[in-house]
Amino acid sequence: MLLPSPFRPRINTANDAPQVRLEREGRDEIRRITQAVERVPWSVSLTQILWTAGPVTLLGAWGGYLLGYGKEPTFENYIFFISYTVITGVAGIIANIAHNLTSSRRYDRTEAKIERVIDTVPELILATRNLIVESLEGDARRREAAAMLLRKQDLAPEGVELAALELLDDRDAARIISQIDVYRRIGLHARIRDINSLNREWLDPQFNELSELAPEAIGLLRERFEGRAPDLHKGVPRDENFIERVLAAIEQDNDLLMTLQDVEEMLILAFELISGRKIPLLNFEYRGRWKLARTLDNLEHARSRYRIRQATGLSRLKALTIYLAESGTLVEDAASGLRAEVLLQRSTQAMDALAEQVTHLAIAVGEGDREHRTVLRARADILTNAIRLYKTVTNAYDQVGRSHAVFLKMSKRWENITSQMSDSATRLRVGPGRRGLRIQEKTIALDDEAKAEVCKHIADHLEESRIKRVDSEIAYQARETVLRVGVDKAKAMAIEIALALEPHIHLSRPAVQRAINGSNAAYFGQLEPNQSAAAKAALGSAMVREIDDDLSRTAESLAIALVRHYRVELEPRAIEFLRDTFGAREATLNMLSNYQPADHHPISYLSNRPPMIQTANRDWYRALVLARRVLDDD
Predict the structure, then answer these.
(1) Res 233 pLDDT > 90
(2) How far is 31 from 536, CA to CA, in rounded Å?
């Protein structure tokens, strides 16, 4: 009698039906996208041919003969027209069959490209996250890994305990937080409050101590301690201004301006849009007097450009900090959630230490210690790149002042024009109609044809870059594979995604960047390596449908701009519209409605002053000059 092998895979019939349904839905999604650009259904083509070669031709021939000769066609003419119709119809059908036979290969190639992109992009996201953790060292690596764990909506209590242990290095605290997560899963909030009251006094100091080092990770851990987990419907907050950094890397041909976090965000955005994500966009629109309309467009463009410029300085500073962290300098912590002043302080301290290290190495090499020559060259290259990035920081903050001046100029021009008109010409219009000042809602999305074009572009790059699967190093069986990708290829992929999306959603426009930055990304935690492309397509489509687009903050920002920048009164009907349509808070809107522009001087929008950026330290350049002199002499 043969006993069943303990290593033989069990047949789980309970999960077979959902898996088959998932595969079918994903396959239908891929086929629908492919057919949008490569194939017209046979029934439609046949109907078109029969209709055109049949009744249309006969009616056209009969009408033409009647108009030309003034009488109906003879019997012989009918025979001619019918024979002509039959011959042309058969020829059309044969031509269509030949076209379908010859184009089937192109259809299959397009379908294969779409499948490859849907199959590869989610695994590239996982591979990029591994690169992010791999680029860090020591405690910074542990903290970043813990933050990635805590972002998972479906993380088990054991995973919560592991993340807490990585962050706090305290087994008792980690065990308590995991117990809270167990109670959260079954809804026992009374027990959560009991545990909080007993342990808050000794856990809060630990949270406060680490909040300066890893504010985002500690914030996620605090939420777990309070009994809250990431909400699937709210999505995952995006890394701010990632699009601007990717576009800057393209424009300046310098991928150091882009971080690996930006690569991850760009991959997520691409998979969201391919899966059917629709991101709302709100802005002002005026239709009426052309002079007022043009002034509003100029002011809105200046306001958008200024907000992007404000974020650019912090964006460049973050790129510098992360580069120094990835290069193994004194800056070892990821830059997520840190203020500009903290980033600047850490960056300059790290560059001072790096310059000092380069100086000592150069002196040692100059005195004959050739063993450190390779190290000196590497550290000098890092310092060179860091100085280049530091210059982009100073240039970015210089641009803030210029864009601020343009914004104030456009605001003054709008104020001068509107002061000459009645209040009815500039008040916010709600309800039916298209004229006047209105809040316009648009959608950032890809239709099926655009999805296919984007997938073809990305698939061509995947083919050129030769990104392949390799056997997992920790798998017990060779059937499990992972994608292996380097930093350069990952950043090149983010650039290609931006280039592929630009013609369809116009990523370079400030309003589009603001809308995407203001939205939360879909949660793709259920996607796993070695799932089929069809399963990933179905799961991706389901996950983007779970996202609830929260426009309340965006609507409140528009209301603030309307009152303070455009000097337009917020009427009760407009308050009701913003509250009911976009979910804006009524208390905030009522406070804005009491704002009187005449009682306030024009606000300097530079009230949130950027950090004081000094010129590059001369010691950095001296260290480089000394290093180059020593290396050139050898």
Answers:
(1) no
(2) 14
Question: What is the SS3 assignment for 436?
Answer: strand
CA distance to 6, 330, 378, 592, 628, per residue, from 375 (Å): 53, 16, 5, 59, 13
Q: Two tokens at 418?
A: 């509107």
pLDDT digits (tens, 9 = 90+) for 568-600: 777 788 888 888 888 888 888 888 777 655 544
Are the C-beta atoms of 279 and 510 separated by less than 8 Å? no
Q: What does the H/E/C string look like for 99-146?
A: HHHHHHHHHHHHHHHHHHHHHHHHHHHHHHHHHHHHCCCHHHHHHHHH
Distance CA 410, CA 424 (A): 21
Q: At which residue do the structure tokens 């369809």 appear? A: 504
- Identify the band that residue 195 occupies on the pLDDT scale cut at 50, 70 and 90: very high
Is the pLDDT confidence value at 15 over 50? Answer: no
What is the C-alpha to C-alpha distance for residues 522 and 552, in angstroms, rounded to an integer? 18
pLDDT digits (tens, 9 = 90+) for 39-53: 555 555 555 555 555
Q: Which amino acid is at 401?
A: G
Q: How many other CB atoms are there within 10 angstroms of residue 268's CB atom?
A: 23
What are the start-end ranges of the H helices in 189-289?
189-211, 215-225, 242-252, 260-274
Buried b (16+ CB within 10 A) or exposed e, 423-450: eeebbbbbeeeeebbbbeeeebbbeeeb
**Is residue 273 a contact partner of residue 290, using CB atoms and an 8 Å limit?**
no
pLDDT tens string 279-304: 998 877 766 666 666 777 777 778 77
How many other CB atoms are there within 10 angstroms of residue 489's CB atom?
A: 17
What pLDDT, in 10s, does the model give residues 548-570? Answer: 888 888 888 778 777 776 667 77
Distance between CA atoms of residues 54 and 84, nearest Å:
10
The H or E element that residue 469 is part of is strand 469-471
pLDDT tens, position by position, 202-224:
899 999 888 877 888 898 999 99
* Spatial contact of 333 and 213, defined as CB atoms under 8 Å apart: yes
| Angle between helix 572-582 and helix 552-560 axes, rounded to 10 deg | 150
d(CA 461, CA 459): 5
CA 182, CA 192: separation in Å to the nearest integer? 9
| Cα–Cα distance measured from residue 43 to residue 111, given in angstroms and rounded to the nearest whole number | 21
Q: What does pTM read for this prediction?
A: 0.74
List the alpha helices (DSSP H) in 280-439: 290-326, 340-366, 373-418, 423-426
Phi and psi, residue 441, nearest 5°:
-110, 125
State phi, psi for 263 to the nearest 5 degrees.
-60, -45
**Averaged over 96-113, what is the pLDDT?**
70
In the numeric block, the tokens 């009744």 are attached to 55
CA atoms within 13 A on the CB side of 330: 15
Higher pLDDT, 334 or 246: 246
